[in-house]
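[audit] Reproducing an earlier prediction to check determinism. Same input, same settings, fresh worker. If the tokens differ from the archived copy the diff job will pick it up downstream; this log only records the rerun itself.
[audit] input (278 residues):
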Amino acid sequence: MAVRAADFADLAGYGLFGGLSFRAYLRRVAVQLRALGGHGFEVHLRALDPADYEEYCAALGFDPGDAAARVAYAADPELGGEPFVYAGQRLAVLLPGLADDHRARVRISIATAALLEAAGEGPPGERRLVAALRHAIEVWSAVAAGAGDGFHLLTLRCHGPEHGEELTSAADLQMERGRCATGGRDGEAFCMTLAAGLASGGAGAMVLHGDPAAPGGQAVRGWALHRGRLRPMTGREVLDELADDVGRGLPFPPAAVPLPGFALPAPPAPEDGGGPLD
């Protein structure tokens, strides 16, 4: 389904919505969802992204205005994974949730392609891929455990070793009594992006923005990514990273308290004379 008015307008030119306005389209969708849910069906949803849909149709020779193209796109496994399941949400909740899910799926798709390219082919590539994924999950768990209770934001940016494409990701961490209560698709996208950064051996930074409501200010910690390893930043380096973020158009965290990063799990040991993440 189209989740934004701008997306709807772009796609309406292909005659996909029978001349309906966006408001009328949403009303019809809401009725259809309630009817399907009321009959006991499990309804899986996917955002209808104009650029992605047009690229898909061009690659496979579909007419974008053909209903069969829309059905094929909805069933395409390229943005697979666990489905987004309709659970009776009001559209005011459903639409932003589905948009967030789509953005995370796109990040996962991009990061997966980068990870496969960095890992290489054959058994050595498979070992590098597995090692990178395992280490990324270990890092995620360690950061979550060290974050402390409250609401946190974990961000990542990284490059490939030779003018590689910049990969970025962000995920909320809600810690309650030492346990992570959030993660979901954004957490999956973050770990996949981190694995790609580890495997590529490029440079980057990971920053943990602490709970803004914490007494004494918002603690911000960081780690520098270089050649498949994460090194704790000093407090000064964290401040410099925040200043660089401002240069990239991001706001400076209010009441930020830059602190050194804490120790994280070391990457896996080499198995054949070369580190799997080097």
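[audit] rerun output stored. Observation attached for the diff report: The longest strand covers residues 167-176.
[audit] end
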